[in-house]
Amino acid sequence: MALLTVRRRGGEMFPAREIEDTYDRLGQLMNAALGEALGTLPGDGGMGAWVPMADVSETEDSYVVEIDVPGARKDQIDVQLSERELIVTGQIEEQERQRRHRKMRRTGQFELRTTLPGDVDADRVEAHLSDGVLTITVPKAEAAKPKHIEVSA
After folding, report:
1. Taking the CA atoms of the chain, what radius of gyration do you get in angstroms?
2. Is 101 inside a domain boundary?
3. Where's the SHSP domain (predicted)?
4. How far is residue 37's CA from residue 131's CA, in Å, rounded to a whole number?
5. Structure confidence at residue 105 (pLDDT)
6. For the segment 77-129, what is each residue's pLDDT rounded down to a tens digit?
7. 81: β partners
8. Cα separations in angstroms, 19 against 3, 14, 22, 119, 120
9. pLDDT at residue 43 is higher than 50
10. Domain with 22 in it: what CATH number?
11. Of 83, 97, 100, 124, which one's alpha carbon is 20 to 30 angstroms from that of 14?
12. Is residue 149 in some structural domain?
């Protein structure tokens, strides 16, 4: 059985990344389940915001967040960074059609909130929308980047 690792930074303990990922996914599942139960799925006449599917990954220099927002235009998306919390909100408008046979894509207001695992450089964040995927690159702060330590004999 693999053990979850606990990361320490500045004397504070941070939960393992696996726990945070599970928490985020549980929030998405609860939003979907309760939204359906309460009739608040956007596009169905409700008022609630839905959570788009997203991946958060890490490179040596940055955190990369990829969010599925099919049908969204860049002017319909707002990206904010508050300390380490990334907040992406927006609205996807439903297209007018003569007859609809099936509706599986969500429309209406959406919101994604995720806390990035380390310190970031908020002045160099970039966001790019292509083929229905919003890619946000959040550079790590110099203090959060791994440091190579030379071993002496």
Report:
1. 19
2. no
3. 44-153
4. 31
5. 79
6. 999 999 899 999 999 988 777 787 777 778 899 999 999 998 999 999 999 99
7. 86
8. 12, 10, 5, 19, 21
9. no
10. 2.60.40.790
11. 124
12. no
Residue 1 tokens read as: 């059985």
What pLDDT score was predicted for residue 132? 94
Q: What is the pLDDT of residues 12-39, one digit of tens each?
A: 555 565 676 676 677 767 766 665 444 4
The angle formed by the CA atoms of residues 15, 2 and 114, to the nearest 5 degrees, is 30
pLDDT of residue 55: 96
The count of structural domains within the chain is 1
| Residue 68, in any domain of the structure | yes
The tokens describing 145, both together, are 């980047």
Residues 6+ away with beta carbon under 8 Å from 72: 90, 92, 129, 132, 134
The answer to whether the CB of 146 falls within 8 A of the CB of 118 is no
Task: Specify if 89 maps to a domain.
Answer: yes
CA distance 114 to 65: 9
Domain with 22 in it: 12-93+106-144
